Amino acid sequence: MTYPAKSTTQKPIMKGSISMFVLRKQHLISLLLAAILWLSCGFHILGMYQEGYSLAVMAPISRGVPDRPNVSLMFNVDWGEEFVPQILEVLSEAGICATFFPTGTWAANHPDLLQEIIARGHEVGNHGGSHVHLEHLPKDKLQEIIKEGELLITEATGFAPAKLFAPPYGEWTDSTVEYALEIGYQTILWTVDTVDWRMPAPESIWKRALAGAKPGALILLHPTEPTVEALPEIIAGLKEKGLVPVTVSDSLQ
Question: Residue 135's pLDDT is what?
Fold first, then answer.
């Protein structure tokens, strides 16, 4: 049986088909590269936001929002109750509000004074149950100190303090900040430390306060006699700088 010979003639390949195939391949490669680049950038941006969030939360706050002309006067209180009424009078005469951070023991011993602070419109934060060193405390002990402060302040006034924790001695570590945050408290430090607890001359206090005063500044004070004398000068100097004293919570918003 004779079979027909196979044809040796090849079918012509269209140039247009080749060009279309190359173009499609290049297009797919371009899309793939674009997708990879998009994912890479997306993860990088996400990483930046996550890192920024972590830094914002896990570090103590030492300054309020800097894009407004606000500052905050903060009074850490574990002693000096004899000077608190005078401080309140100066603040009332100036028509400004401050933030007081009493310890729980001070609140329990001076509920009338603390109630007066609140009645005059000032903010009350938490300075811990007592004025103890805490940077090396385990989580349960540190949180117990913060909770004790909250409880004693609430019992003394009928109001819970703001969720702001000013650690005694200004001591903090990454761990203490994290432990406080776990129970809802942001750790608050300061922009300017007047070092008034050393009882310097009033001039030294107000000069130090005003030298570091800037938008968002948190100015740390204590109830002392030279602080009472320096306070009017501080308030006047802030006004000259165009800065308005507000509570810490207001300064952070």
Answer: 86
Measured between alpha carbons, how far is 223 from 108 in angstroms, rounded to an integer? 17
Do both 141 and 51 map to the same domain? no
Say if residue 118 is in the same domain as residue 45. Answer: no
Q: Give residue-wise pLDDT tens across range 9-30.
A: 444 444 444 444 444 545 544 4
Domain tally for the chain?
2
Neighbour-count burial of 163, counting CB atoms closer than 10 A to its CB (0-12 exposed, 13-18 middle, 19+ buried): middle
Q: How far apart are CA 41 and CA 8, in angstroms?
A: 55
Output the CA–CA distances (angstroms, integers) from residue 72 to 44, 63, 75, 176, 189, in the order listed.
Answer: 36, 9, 10, 23, 12
AA letter at 157:
T
**pLDDT tens digits for 141-167?**
999 999 999 999 999 999 999 999 999
Provide the whole-model pTM.
0.77
CATH of the domain at 163: 3.20.20.370
Q: Do 22 and 96 belong together in one domain? A: no
Tokens in use for 130? Answer: 């007592």
Which residues span the domain enclosing 200? Answer: 70-252
